[in-house]
Structures are given as C-alpha cells and as structure tokens.
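=== RUN LOG ===
request id: a7f3
mode: sequence -> structure
chains: 1
length: 323
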Amino acid sequence: MRFSRGELEAAADLVHGQMAPTPQYDWPGLSRVAGAEVWVKHENHAPTGAFKVRGGITFMDWLGREHPDSPGICTATRGNHGQSQARAATAAGLRALIYVPQGNSVEKNAAMRGYGAELVEFGADFDTARPEAVRVAEAEGLTVVPPFHTELVRGVATYGYELFSALPDLDTVYVPIGCGSGICGTILARDALGVSTEVVGVVSEHAQTAKLSVEAGAMVETNAARTFADGMAVRVPVKEAFEIYSCGAARIVSVSEEEIAEAIRLYYTATHNLAEGAGAAPLAALMQEKDKMTGKKVGVILSGGNIDMGWMRRVLEGGVPAV
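=== RESULT ===
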C-alpha cells in the first residue's frame, strides 16, 4: 500500500470538510522533562476525541461511491473506531452495528450509542468480538468495516500529512500500535511527503503482538492482551499492517502499565490535556528513550483522550487502573 501526495491531499480535503486540522504544539514542560524539543500532535482535539474519526469520514465516502445500496455497517472495536464509524454511518443515514468485548469502557460505549450505534457486547476481548461482527454482518447484509482498510488508512494518514507538512524536520515520531492503522498512516504520509523522520511504534508490554511479529519476521499471536491502554489491546496482528510497519518503522518499543500511567500524569501536569492509555503510550516511550532523544526534535501522537473517569481518578492518585 502506498499513497501519493495527491491522494493524501484529496483525503485531507475530504476530512477537513468535516473537521479542522488538529494542532501540533510544543510544550515547554514536556521538553524540559524529556530533554528534547517535544511536539504533540493533538488527535485528542478531533471530533470523537481520537484520530479514528478521520478514517470514518473517508471510509463512508468510499462506501457511498462503491456500494451505494449498502444498508449499513458492522464492525468490532474497543471504542474509538466504533465512535468514528457510528458517527459517519449515522450521518449518511445508515445502520451502525458495533460489537465490543464484554466489560468494555463504559464511557466509550455511551459515546458510541450517542453517535447512533446499536451496541452489542460479545466475547472476552476485541479479537473474539471481531469474527462475530463479521459473521453477523454477512448474515444481515451489512458491510463489514475491518480494522485495516485502504480507505480507513488514507483517512487516518491525514494526521501524518498535517504533522509532516508543518514539521518536516522532525527527527523521530512515536506512534501507538493497536491494529496498525495509525502507525501505517504515519509511515505512508512520511513516505509520500519525502521526509526522513524515523517512525517508532509503541505497544504495551501486555499486548506485544506487533513487536513480537517484527522481531520474528512473521506474524505472532499472543494469548492475552490485558492492558488498560485499550486502544492497543490486540492479540492478533493484521497482516496488511504488519507488512507496512515491519519495513517502515525504525523499531517497536514496549512500555509498562506504570510508564503509561506516569505519561498520563505528565500530560495532565505539563499540558492539562487528558490522554487515554494508548494516547499516552508514545510519550511513555519517549521518556523511556530520553537518553537516545536528547537534543532532538521529537513528535508524539496523542492519539486519543477518551479515558473513563474512574481510570483517570486512579491514575491521578498515583496508581494504575486494574483490568
């Protein structure tokens, strides 16, 4: 998968018809602690509070052109992808059937319903809910929205397009990895714009499928993915994404639950922004590698701010949410 500059410009025009570009800010408090010039790409400022909204816009545009008779969509999610798809489908007058695992984020579930989703809880985790969503979609004649699709990635890549257009001289950018649309969009935007920034992927130490796969040179499933960074809680790698980040990322870094929680606290104290677990993971990785990044110009993707109040309370008290 590759995108030309023109393809990303067209996607950006489409996305910006429904949302403003998100800002990238340098925060002195973060730079002082990290020992680097730190720029935050604020995808937490997007509609739905997360980067996934971009892919919903481009996917629904594609669906309307290529499958105009589709009655609606069905997908599985931990929350941000589901909000994006429910928002876009409902706006198009389509049904949005969304599967989440049992015990999913209460507040993300409420947000998805607020955007018009029919929400179904199924299975113990995302990778159990996903095949059930496919089965039901086929039975009910709905369009399956996979976690990775060319049009989803083209939409998501617009945040990388914005970031690299504004800051083409970044030395490194840290990006969280769940199913992989975010890091792949970042890599593809970098390549389309011809900049030389290193892209570093970030996973939870409790959900290392992407890191293990890159190290093995082949896809590696894990038995569990129990992390409060639910946007990264994936057991089964996505082949199309693996083929991009295994070649395009400089390295994959794993961070602990404690490091993620500390990064959430740092975001709050240094910038007064809320970050969910996956959104804070890039900053956690930068702090882990601060000696390597000293004096450099570094980007971190704050991919989302949709953290449940109970979990945020626990983090601000100095703890780590239990899952």
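=== NOTES ===
Residues 115 and 181 are 22 Å apart (CA to CA).
The first strand starts at residue 24 and ends at 26.
=== END ===
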